[in-house]
Design a protein that fits this description.
alpha/beta; four-stranded mixed β-sheet; 411 residues; 18 helices; single chain
């Protein structure tokens, strides 16, 4: 992602001539009046419900910011951050500034404005459907950016999913490796993975779960659509001397055959797409041996928010995860109940731990930026990823988003 890919605002079009941002500015002022955050303008004036010392957002180019927001209400704010139209003031943490807005999501706008949602919502692009071809392209767009990029901010396990912390101890005393291993072990324990277990992992990541399952004596088939992930996972597995227990294939879940005692999948359902959830869970059901267990770690949102956003196109889908959609627990239960014999038997939720995981990733990303920068990883890319990590952190910290390990067995 480079600055050249951002929509230009220099050449007026009929739409930009008609929408100059006045409506967006009025609505934004109304919203910030009710939250403990301040907006500060170039002339030194400020608006918002926060007093002295409150998180402050610097509006650098007001006209550009509000025109973007007015033209694309669900995408414009993030694009404006990428373009440098606004940023967190010195001494203000971006995620903490976004937190009050995330906590009020669904209540920020007046009801008459919410009733116009269908007018501003944009449909999900047909080109990002998660067909066999589309899924590969969507995964490659994010996960094949660069193994070095992810290694720069992830912990040595290369785990790109929420860690699970021990809340009986101070968080500061726990590193991410320990917390990521706790998360993986919880999945393997729930799935009943022991010596001799036949395990299917849908979504390899960079191989840490497969490594820990193989260390228990399990035989693992791990599948991914990312060539970059497959290559590094194979290297790590070979270095651990476990290649005889783990096979990493470049394969879609719809193409797998066989029978497995356990099927596990960590934060991959978000990339499946609602259209293919029945196919995804039916595949798990078909591949699971009698008496087997499936564990899916999923990012979740409340069912009402899922229903309100399921068909609309947002910033995260445009710039970070094309084809992605976050389910609700109710939606998972409904799909499995209607299309499979699988039933939810246990739910371990730990959304607050994802906020801490994302905070650590963001801090490491910013610290490592001098080593990351170069080529297509320009300042626009940096702002895009900083906004993505902070935006998600605020979502989990506020409770708007959750993450859970969902254990399923046949009825």
């Amino acid at each position: 992602m480079t600055s050249e890919t951002l929509p230009s605002l220099e050449i007026p079009t009929p739409r930009t001539l008609f929408t100059r941002g006045a409506v967006a500015r009025t609505l934004v002022h109304k919203i910030v009046a009710g939250v403990p955050v301040r907006l500060r303008y170039p002339d030194g004036s400020h608006v918002g419900g926060g007093g002295d010392g409150a998180p402050t957002l610097e509006v650098v180019r007001p006209a550009s910011l509000y025109r973007r927001v007015e033209q694309h209400p669900k995408i414009g704010l993030g694009e404006a951050y990428m373009a440098g139209d606004w940023h967190a003031a010195h001494g203000t943490d971006l995620a903490q500034a976004l937190l009050p807005f995330a906590a009020r999501m669904g209540r920020l706008l007046p009801k008459p404005v919410l009733s116009l949602r269908r007018i501003v919502d944009r449909a999900l692009p047909a080109g990002t459907r998660n067909t066999l071809v589309g899924s590969r392209a969507n995964i490659e767009a994010h996960y094949d950016l660069s193994n070095d990029l992810f290694a720069a901010f992830l912990d040595p396990t290369m785990s790109y999913s929420s860690a699970l912390f021990d809340h009986s101890r101070p968080l500061a005393d726990q590193d991410l490796v320990e917390a990521q291993h706790r998360k993986i072990d919880a999945i393997l324990d729930s799935a009943g993975v022991t010596s001799g277990s036949r395990v299917l992992e849908i979504g390899t990541g960079w191989g840490e779960l497969a490594l820990r399952a193989a260390a228990r004596g399990a035989d693992v088939l791990s599948i991914t659509l990312s060539r970059e992930q497959q290559a590094l996972a194979r290297e790590r597995i070979a270095a651990a001397g476990l290649s005889h227990r783990v096979e990493v294939r470049l394969q879609d879940y719809r193409e797998v055959t066989g029978e497995f005692d356990a099927v596990v999948s960590v934060e991959m359902i978000e990339a499946v797409g609602e259209e293919y959830w029945p196919t995804y869970f039916s595949a798990i059901d078909a591949l699971l041996a009698p008496g087997g267990t499936a564990v899916v770690q999923a990012i979740l949102m409340g069912h009402d928010r899922y229903l309100a956003t399921r068909n609309s196109y947002g910033w995260i889908q445009k710039y970070i995860f094309p084809g992605g959609l976050i389910p609700s627990l109710d939606a998972i239960s409904e799909v499995t109940g209607r299309h499979t014999d699988l039933r939810v038997r246990g739910v371990l939720a730990f959304g607050g731990d994802y906020a801490e995981t994302l905070r650590r990733w963001r801090m490491r990303f910013l610290e490592a930026w001098p080593q990351i920068e170069g080529g297509s990883f320009d300042e626009t890319f940096k702002r895009m990823w900083e906004f993505y990590l902070a935006y998600c952190e605020a979502g989990f910290a506020s409770g708007y988003l959750d993450v859970a390990q969902v254990t399923m067995r046949r009825d």
